[in-house]
Amino acid sequence: MGRSTRKAINLLVIAVIVALGVLGLLPLIWLLYSTAVNGLPPLLEKGLSFITDLPPTPMSTDIGGIAPALVGTLISSSIATLLAVVSAVISSLFTREYMYSRISGFIEAVVRSFNGIPTIIVSMYVYTTVVLWMGEPNVVAASIALLIAVLPTAHYYLSSALRSVEERYREAALSLGFRRIHVLRYVYLGVARRQVASGILMTFIRAVGETAPLLFTMGFLTNSVFQGLNRPGNAISLLIFIYALSPYTNYHTVAWGAALLLLILVLIPVLLIEVLVKEARK
Amino acid sequence: MRKGDRAFYLLLVPSLFSSAILMLILIHVTTVSLPAFVDRGLSLLTSVMWSPPTQDYGLLPALVGTILTSLISIVVVTPISLSIMFLVGDLLPRGLSRVFHRLVEVMGALPTVIYGLWGGFTLSRFLHGTVYTWLHDYLSYIPLFSCRPLSGQNILTAGVVLGISMIPYASSLLIEGYRAIPSRYIETAYSLGFYRFETYGLVTSIMKPLLIASIMLSMSRALGETTIVALTIGNAYVASPCLLSPGITVSAWIVSQFESAFIYPGALPALYAGALLVMVLSLLLSFLGIMLISKWRGVIYG
Is residue A78 part of a domain? Predict the structure, then answer.
């Protein structure tokens, strides 16, 4: 190949890469833009009552609010995040402490293959076990389904947080006569606290955004804000999903408004993580 | 070892929690779906009917839709994530590369339901007005584009949105892999007078196993994805080779049929059979992908 041909191909390849890369980021901008454009009008129109009112009926002229969904999302994702983080701290601690044992390898393999289980199947499983047993869809069942769905995420982030602590800190602590439980408290959770915090936030983001695990487990509460943990609830992601599939245009408007709210709910922890990571880098 | 430290092994009990759940789910799905395989045999996979009155349940439309959407999503995500890898890893200046990488990560944090909403309402309308009509007008002799696009919600849209939603995941896998390649290879290439595209060719060949693994892992995710597909595919129970017609996937079909399947005899096992097929394929791909990555890392780190 002559030099000029190579030069031409080089430029062409770089142009293609830049074009494809920009094309890959374009959906993000477009998506944020259309969520803002479609979601702002209902939010502005209703103001604060969008998060305190009950959802509309198909024929109503008012677009109502999404209070049950907001409450349900916050409760169920908090429960799921809390339990997932506790479980993940324990399992990642075990796999970190006994890094080369066969059981650790097994646990890692299982947690990773969990990603291969479609979350809709988690929903089916929790429905046939918890929901049928408790008699109706409810917030607890939804939290359990969410917990199962975000467990791999929690384990992934927390085990990489613990792995970021250098071996010598651990050895130093142990040689000073630390108990293992103190190694956990002061070395792992102490040194890697920022990574652990951002891992918890990542788990929360996942839990807030999940829809499929809630489909058969949460119910769809629209006539009151909250009825208790053992009663049906609602969630923002679920409300968007169901309203988007419905034929009513006022439901679509509510769905967009809810999507903007969900976006804000997810982007706040994203920004927090950014701050945490930046400070850690200093 | 201290006395209290032995208690540390107690950690093992909750650590096995996830393994127990995985086993329970596998057993549950297998046992419920077993009657469908026994009773219906091959017709379960080849029939296009789903009619509770005659108790005739076939999964072909759902399986075809699942495979097609996953394949389309791979076609979308692979070149884009590879380009993002070269952009972030090599082409862009440092500050810009960091910003670009962060934006891709933000994209990964967005809930799938928002992708679905955007895909089902905004992107599908745009594609219908531009690309689909064009595809049908000029390429309708290809069976894939032979049918008239009635709306923007079809198999192609579902596959494209699915692919878009996996860009962050695939890119982060590839970027991580790219950074693991010892820089001496790349520096050697440049010092020998390689042009960028020649170095990229070299990098791609070094990363080939990782690229295959990322395709497998993306595919594993695409197979089971529910929210995006249900909002974009148009939900019609037909098996069609045409990408411009509305379709269905196993997961989207479960969404619409699961609760009524408890009423009709025979429907639940058939539905679970679809879930089992998707889950087994997805677990297999995810397992193979992970194996391939760890093997590749072993080779790279020597």
Answer: yes
B282 neighbourhood in chain A, CB within 8 Å: 116-118
Asked if A77 and A146 touch (Cβ cutoff 8 Å), the reply is yes
The minimal CB distance from B2 to the residues A17, A103, A179 is found for: A179
A44 reaches B (C-beta below 8 A): no
The 10s digit of each residue's pLDDT in B145-188 is 888 888 889 999 999 999 999 999 999 999 999 998 988 888 89
**Sign of the C-alpha dihedral computed for residues A261, A266, A272 and A275 taken in this order:** negative
Q: How far apart are CA B94 and CA B89, in angstroms?
A: 9
Domain-embedded: residue B10: no
The pLDDT of residue A280 = 63
Domain of residue A220 covers 67-281
Residues B248 and B235: beta-carbon distance below 8 Å: yes
Is residue B269 less than 8 Å (CB to CB) from chain A?
A: no
Q: What pLDDT is stored for residue A281 in this prediction?
A: 59
How far is residue B212 CA from its own chain's centroid? 13
CATH of the domain at B229: 1.10.3720.10
Find, in chain B, the residue whose alpha carbon is nearest to that of A204.
B109
Whether residues B196 and A13 touch (CB distance < 8 A) is answered with: yes
Of A21, A120, A259, the CB nearest to B254: A120
**Inside any domain, residue B13:** no
Residues 6 or more apart whose Cβ sits within 8 Å of residue A198:
A157, A161, A272, A273, A276, A277
CATH number at A109 reads: 1.10.3720.10
B255 touches A at CB < 8 Å: yes
Q: What is the mean pLDDT of residues A228-239?
A: 93
Asked if residues A259 and B117 have their Cβ atoms less than 8 Å apart, the reply is: yes
What is the total count of domains within chain B? 1
| A255 in contact with chain B, both atoms CB, cutoff 8 A | yes
- Is residue A41 in some structural domain? no
In a domain, A19, yes or no: no
Instruction: Judge contact between A198 and A276, C-beta under 8 A.
Output: yes
Please indicate if any CB of chain B lies within 8 Å of the CB of A160: no
- B82: tokens are 């590879």
Show residues of chain B in contact with A181, CB under 8 Å.
4, 8
Residue B167 structural domain = 34-48+55-301
Residue B15, in any domain of the structure: no
Q: Which among A7, A13, A2 is positioned nearest to B201, based on CA atoms?
A: A13
Q: Which regions of chain B are under pLDDT 70?
A: 1-8, 302
pLDDT value of position B151: 85
Closest Cα in chain A to B16: A107
Contacts of B110 (CB under 8 A, 6+ apart): A28, A31, A209, A263, A266
Mean pLDDT of chain A: 90
Residue B144 inside a domain? The answer is: yes
Residue A120 to residue A106: CA distance in whole angstroms: 25
| Contact yes or no for A270 and B109 at CB 8 A | yes
ipTM of the complex: 0.92
